[in-house]
User: Which sequence fits this backbone?
């Protein structure tokens, strides 16, 4: 039961991350995501066979932690009034959504400690906070195609950014290989800080 709940939370945390990209793009004048049916909570519309199925399965089998991603929501910068600035707003919408979800579940976590009837869900809420912090801050890394790279695009010449795009997945792999343990410590500390924020007498 606990595993099922964690998987559902992961799936919908990823989906909400992607929907927020598309929704902000839509509000900024780009209807691409809406026309392609991506502003929906239906998981079928967001499934990426690699990121939504294979990677979560493998990370759970080998580490006990579940991580993955959905099919990226498309947007067309030609519809945007200020493509560079608006692209940043679209990019940070996803991580910001996950941070808000993490805050929400940290509140539920505090409630579960306060009220015994919710104690069965304490560990689920703990996982939910961690999952969303990972989704938020991993995606903020400045490596293409992650969301953080769109912020870099605002400051870098397009030619240099295009070059970084060719190295993007390699840089992500290097980060995971050599720095993910440090990143995990950062996430764990941030999670504990967030979980201890709520105090009920």
Assistant:
């Amino acid at each position: 039961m606990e595993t099922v709940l964690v998987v559902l939370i992961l799936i919908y945390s990823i989906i909400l991350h992607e929907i927020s990209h598309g929704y902000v793009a839509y509000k900024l004048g780009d209807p691409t995501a809406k026309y392609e049916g991506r502003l929906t909570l239906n998981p079928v519309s967001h499934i990426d066979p690699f990121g939504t199925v294979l990677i979560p399965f493998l990370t759970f089998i080998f580490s006990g932690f579940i991580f993955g991603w959905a099919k990226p929501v498309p947007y067309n910068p030609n519809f945007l009034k200020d493509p560079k600035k608006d692209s940043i707003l679209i990019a940070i919408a996803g991580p910001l959504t996950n941070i808000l979800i993490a805050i929400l579940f940290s509140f539920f976590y505090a409630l579960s400690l306060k009220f015994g009837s919710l104690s069965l869900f304490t560990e689920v809420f703990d996982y939910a906070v961690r999952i969303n912090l990972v989704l938020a801050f991993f995606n903020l890394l400045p490596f293409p195609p992650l969301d953080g790279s769109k912020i870099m695009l605002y400051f870098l010449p397009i030619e240099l950014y295009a070059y970084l795009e060719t190295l993007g997945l390699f840089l992500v792999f290097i980060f995971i290989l050599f720095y993910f343990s440090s990143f995990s410590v950062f996430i764990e500390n941030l999670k504990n800080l967030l979980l201890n924020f709520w105090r009920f007498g």
